[in-house]
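pls design
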């Protein structure tokens, strides 16, 4: 999730755990700062953009390592708060602020390696977009109430904010399962052979959902809003670049993306460069993560050091489409 959501969750946890044992502003500030620590790994350069993407949310997001680090971080937190006599309580607050960070990230589609060092599998529920105001707002309201009221009532508001945001996570999982059932029914009725199926929310909400289905000869993309009248999902078909994949599948950078996306990727060729795109984040034809991994040297393709391939997006058009499609309008995706 985004840094503001992670800070808000950590701050709310700090206030909840410390309760009357520390001033609300101290608990909120320290809890919020601690909760953002795992994302410091994004400032470390692993040598190339694919490594940077696939090693983000790795060791710094592992529950095992965060648990081991928590007593040390708690020691400095207690010193900063000038409350060393309450170290054990700070330890609990710090541990919860740290481990809930990767747990919250787990709900997004990115992939979080929460079980390192035992496995590097990138776990992803995929029921939350990375930024969702309806998740973050209850936390911010609860924290604000705790800071303003500085009383038992304010603490209860903070607890209510935590409860509402947690219930929203639960709703997202239910909504995802509902849309997935509709997608499976539609695809089965159409006689489609599906190798992989992904259901994830469109940006900033859990009303409109994007569905991607990988087939033997490409992939399908469709959208489903809870305000749609039609019970079926309309899918558009696109190529995945299977012929290109047969040529470059053994390139380390390609194999890495194929593993990280769990097969949800496509290959294309633009101006002589072979581009691999992560199908999980974005929508056709615009994706957040595109990497140049090969150079055409006719008739062969040579592996190159991966570079980020950036595309220009018309944000205003995209937001307009998002709002209309969310409301149930049958409008084509922006191209």
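designed seq:
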């Amino acid at each position: 999730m985004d840094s503001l959501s992670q800070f808000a969750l950590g701050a709310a946890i700090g206030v909840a755990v410390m309760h009357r044992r520390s001033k609300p502003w101290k608990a909120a500030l320290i809890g919020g700062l601690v909760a953002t620590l795992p994302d410091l790994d994004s400032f470390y350069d692993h040598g190339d953009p694919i490594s940077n993407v696939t090693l983000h949310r790795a060791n710094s997001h592992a529950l095992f390592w965060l648990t081991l680090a928590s007593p040390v971080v708690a020691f400095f937190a207690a010193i900063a708060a000038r409350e060393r006599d309450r170290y054990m309580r700070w330890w609990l607050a710090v541990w919860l602020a740290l481990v809930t960070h990767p747990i919250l990230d787990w709900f997004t589609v990115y992939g979080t390696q929460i079980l390192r060092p035992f496995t590097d599998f990138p776990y992803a529920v995929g029921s939350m977009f990375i930024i969702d105001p309806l998740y973050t707002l209850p936390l911010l309201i609860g924290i604000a109430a705790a800071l303003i009221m500085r009383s038992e009532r304010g603490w209860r508001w903070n607890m209510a904010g935590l409860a509402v945001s947690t219930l929203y996570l639960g709703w997202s999982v239910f909504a995802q399962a509902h849309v997935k059932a509709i997608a499976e029914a539609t695809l089965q009725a159409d006689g489609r052979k599906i190798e992989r199926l992904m259901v994830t929310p469109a940006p900033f909400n859990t009303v409109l959902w994007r569905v991607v289905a990988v087939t033997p000869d490409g992939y399908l993309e469709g959208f489903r809003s809870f305000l749609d009248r039609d019970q079926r999902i309309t899918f558009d078909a696109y190529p995945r670049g299977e012929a290109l994949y047969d040529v470059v599948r053994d390139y380390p950078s390609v194999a890495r993306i194929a593993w990280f996306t769990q097969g949800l990727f496509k290959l294309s060729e633009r101006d002589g460069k072979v581009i691999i795109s992560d199908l999980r984040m974005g929508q056709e034809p615009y994706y957040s993560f595109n990497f140049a991994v090969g150079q055409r040297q006719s008739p062969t393709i040579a592996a190159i050091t991966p570079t980020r391939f950036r595309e220009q997006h018309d944000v205003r058009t995209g937001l307009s489409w998002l709002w209309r499609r969310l409301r149930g309008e049958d409008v084509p995706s922006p191209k």
